[in-house]
Amino acid sequence: MKLRHRAAAAVLLAAITAASAQVPAPTTPEALIIAAKTAAGLNFPGTFLRICVNPQNAEGTGAGVVGRGAGGPPPGPPARATWYAQPYKVFDNLYFIGTKVHSAWALTTSDGIIIIDSLYAYAIEAEMVEGLTKLGLNPRDVKYMIISHAHGDHDQGAALFQSRYGTKIVMGAADWDATVARPATAAGGVPKRDISVGPEGTKITLGDTTVNVIATPGHTPGTLSYTFPVKDGGRTLTVAYSGGTAFNFPRSARAFEIYRDSQTKMGAAAKAAGATILMTNHQEFDAAWDKARIAQVPRAPGEPHVYEYGADAVQRYFQLMHHCAEAQRIISK
Ligand SMILES: [Zn+2]
To answer: What residue spans define the domains of the chain?
Structure first.
């Protein structure tokens, strides 16, 4: 009897010690959303609002996601003034060639250019081909284009770069399947299956630069995310690039579980790489167009780059993504 009491007391003490040593992980949708809001802070309000406050679910119809590339026909070209953005040099080796809505980037290396994400077809010539030229870069030097996922707002430039410049196109295996099944009349054309990335990920090396490609299924089955180096003066910093965000995929507990686990995986990859910069591919998630313009303004001595959030904030981004997905998983069947 006495022994059992002592054992029970020890268990209780251990439980109290454990509870006071760490904040318990949130387990209800309400607690997860509160934790996600804390994780978002003022760094990532757009991402929090999009996937936690008003999580989108197209149910495969494309309803409510016109202009975001998921399902349904591509939108007609909107007025140029609503999307055209000047190209900008943002880091010593990274150039913004996106629109006011979507991001595309040119990563320069010692042996050519890697493009990260393209845009809707209507913006390819103005932003990517002419944009590179305006920046003093040659579209013919684009050796790789890495597509985060096969939605029109990020992939409609692939066929043009592949056929005109011989660019190798990198995409997740499952997203290649969806891409090559498109009709020949699809906006931007249909690229030929090229470098296909499976669940194990891959590394794309060009000259002195390597992009670590991490498979992060969820937003689409073949979504890819990355870590890669950027140079800022004498310093080399690491970017964690999150390749897919919105919940505009068919809703199921299993789908959110896959999405959630990809965030854990990408957070760990970002941590291992020492990432202090977080990028995504829509302005509402990382304000890339704002940051690209702010990066043109002189800095005070020692002032960090506008994109340099710090390692903790990069981790908070993936916690935010994890918590929002987990909240949806709990309430989904
Ligand atoms: Zn998408």
So the answer is: 27-67+79-331
Do 244 and 325 touch, CB atoms closer than 8 A?
no
What distance in angstroms lies between residue 18's CA and the mean position of ligand 1's atoms? Answer: 41
In 10 A of CB 194, how many CB atoms?
16
Taking CA atoms, 104 is separated from 86, 129, 289, in Å, by 12, 12, 10
Residue 11 Cα to ligand 1 midpoint, Å, equals 48
311-331 and 253-273 helices, crossing angle to 10°: 170
Side-by-side strand order, sheet with 277-279: 202-206, 209-215, 224-232, 235-241, 277-279
For the chain, what percent of residues have pLDDT higher than 70? 87
Ligand 1 mean position, distance from CA 9 (Å):
53
Pick the CATH number of 27-67+79-331 from 3.90.550.10, 3.40.50.300, 3.60.15.10, 3.30.1360.180: 3.60.15.10
Q: Give 219-263 pLDDT, tens digit per residue.
A: 999 999 999 999 999 899 999 999 999 999 999 999 999 999 999
* Gap between the Cα atoms of 80 and 85, Å rounded: 9
| CA of 218 relative to ligand 1 center, distance in Å | 10
Query: Alpha helix (H) ranges present in 96-191?
Result: 121-123, 130-134, 152-155, 158-165, 173-180
Assess whether pLDDT exceeds 90 at residue 55. Answer: no
Give pLDDT, residue 73: 52
Q: What is the pLDDT of residue 20?
A: 47
